[in-house]
Amino acid sequence: MGRIIRVAIRIFEHAWGLIAIFAFWQIWVMANHYNSIVIVSPLSVLRDMVLNPMIYLRPSLWTLAFGLGGLTAGMSIGLLLAVTAWRWRLFAGTIGPAALLISSTPVVCLIPLLARIFGYESRTEFVTVTVMSFFPCFVFATAGLRALPPMSRELFQVLAASRSRQLLSLALPAAVPSLAVALRVGAATSVLVTMVAEYLMQTGGLGNMFALTSQAFQTERAWGASLAAMALSAILYTIGGAVEIRVHERYK
Question: What residues contact 190, with CB distance under 8 A and at least 6 apart?
């Protein structure tokens, strides 16, 4: 019992701000007697989610699958490009501006372009998340590959280590903490990008659910889809943060 109370107190210490916002929101809606089409109370949204869990489960799994799949592909491509740029400086000068151009394009502008190329299908949703996820990994991996321990490069040169050996034994291990940061940053972003793609193309998932329920004036369910997406994003961010802490403790 004592442990449960301590856990509850710890959760409250971290979430009291969010709880206060929801409490103010609930009181504000009740005091003004707003119509549910205009705005709903947090309790009505939570009630709909608790009473209809299966309606939210499949879209949540869909969004989670595409978010994680796109994040994995994006980080793999970002790391591959960073390694290629580390080996060939000419390639670094080419890929850097191109990656910056893609990442600075708003996702709502990028999705119609990708949809014209790949079609309004689920694979475009995957491609969108991949494209928007690779840049953070590329940036952090590039910085990590160059953040070598002091005098380590000189030591490998004295030992006449090949470029490939320096990459495998020195640069890649040195880049692991930066990759952990990229994972934390990309984890939360992947859910947001996935939901925007689903909303615009209506391929499925929480974004599609939000679009359809909003059009049908099912406001509680639309807010519930948003709340589920927020929960997924927060969970992935927390997991990414835990991985980052473990990696940094390992590399101290």
Answer: 67, 68, 70, 71, 74, 129, 132, 133, 236
pLDDT(239) > 80 = yes
Those residues whose C-beta lies under 8 Å from the C-beta of residue 168, and which sit 6 or more positions away, are none
For the chain, the distance separating the N- and C-terminal CA atoms, rounded to the nearest angstrom, is 36
**Crossing angle (nearest 10°) for helices 53-87 and 122-146:** 40
Report d(CA 207, CA 187) in Å as an integer: 17
| Alpha-carbon span 39 to 165, nearest angstrom | 60
DSSP state of 148: P
DSSP class of 177: H
Contacts 24+ apart (CB under 8 A), 231-236: 232/60, 232/63, 232/64, 232/67, 232/191, 232/206, 233/187, 233/188, 233/191, 233/192, 234/188, 236/67, 236/68, 236/187, 236/188, 236/190, 236/191
Q: How far apart are CA 243 and CA 234, in angstroms?
A: 14
1-34 confidence digits (pLDDT tens): 667 777 777 777 777 887 888 888 888 888 888 7
CA distances for 110 relative to 126, 196, 198, angstroms:
13, 11, 13
| pTM of the predicted structure, to 2 decimals | 0.82
Q: What is the pLDDT of residue 229?
A: 92
Q: What DSSP string runs through 55-90?
A: HHHHHHHHHHHHHHHHHHHHHHHHHHHHHHHHH-HH
Measure the CA–CA gap between 88 and 29, rounded to whole angstroms.
Answer: 59
What type of residue sits at position 96? Answer: G
